[in-house]
User: What shape does this take?
Amino acid sequence: MVLANQPFPPDIRVEKEADVLAGAGHEVLLSCRREHGQVAEETVGNVRAIRHKVHPGSPLRRRLDSFLFLLTLDSPSWRGAIERLVTEHGAQALHCHDLPYARSVLKAGRRTGVPVVLDFHENYPAALRLWRRRWIDRVLFSGARASRFERQVVREADRVVVVVEEAKDRLVRLGADPARVVVFGNAEPAALVLADAPTLPDRLHLVYVGGIAPHRGLETAVEAMPSILGKRPDAHLTIVGDGVSLGELEALVRRLGLSDAVTFTGRLPKDEAMRYVEQATIGLVPHLKSPHTEATVPHKLFQYMAYGRPVLVSDCAPLARIVRETGAGAVFTAGDAGSFAETALALGSDHARLSETSRAGRNAAATTWSMESDSADLLGLYNAP
Assistant: This one.
């Protein structure tokens, strides 16, 4: 696997795929960025991390490699590190995570004669249009350029892996061969499903865990709180995480006079974050609609379900489809604070429905929407002759 220019750990998708593949007898090597203080090679769970630094002794050569990458979308330094996975470590396939270094991986694969799999965690070109980035990155790796690049590499790759059916449909519309696109989602291992889910609290406790950015739709949840509090004075919103728009969200809370009703915990280790999920009445995924959110689904949805927490999601296509298929919660209109408040109150005030959606979510997370049930196509990709 290749997680170019990113550190490891953590990366939850790499870890999940490695667990599935290792369980079938495969060895997973991972080329990733070496951070200060990290060893060059280390086994982390089922991943053997082989860490790379771009010209550590020469800032000038490092800047040149970075500039060449922005010009050509091919890093000579990373391409060399990827080739060494094959020539020195015996890799029999290259599995590239996300779009930016796809050209370097494809070139390395062609030079060494091994197949290349591209693993797209999201609609990357659409995500670039949402993220706050340096001006030079916006100019040299614009959303339009990324779209053209993606259209090219999905046709060159031997296989493509995506996280949800809607993402596969999108790539097929771009010209990808549907027979070469495999779906491996972001579901959680069945072992994460709690045998005895914690009792749902009597108060209405809404909990969000994850990144804080404009496209996450958290402003909608905050703006809905005055209406919710008008009907349920016991309601509370807890936001676990950090991100680029945290300051703006905190300012909105102060402006609406909600400081006693909204808690920000900051970024927490996963175990601590999951304790807040255990205390929730409802888990939130309030994404705004965009080409990005219409073709991906977050890990948190399945974590809520595994913990037996009813979910409230916006009507982005993958979120709405999964929640309606499983019966794990309710769907509101994205970006509409009134719809959020009305739907949260209806779900949160109906104890029978809360219990029903809690059971449905846990059952789905243990069976049809578990990592294990989702792994057949990924294993088939690498087990095939």
Remarks:
- The first strand starts at residue 2 and ends at 3.
- The chain has 16 helices and 14 strands.
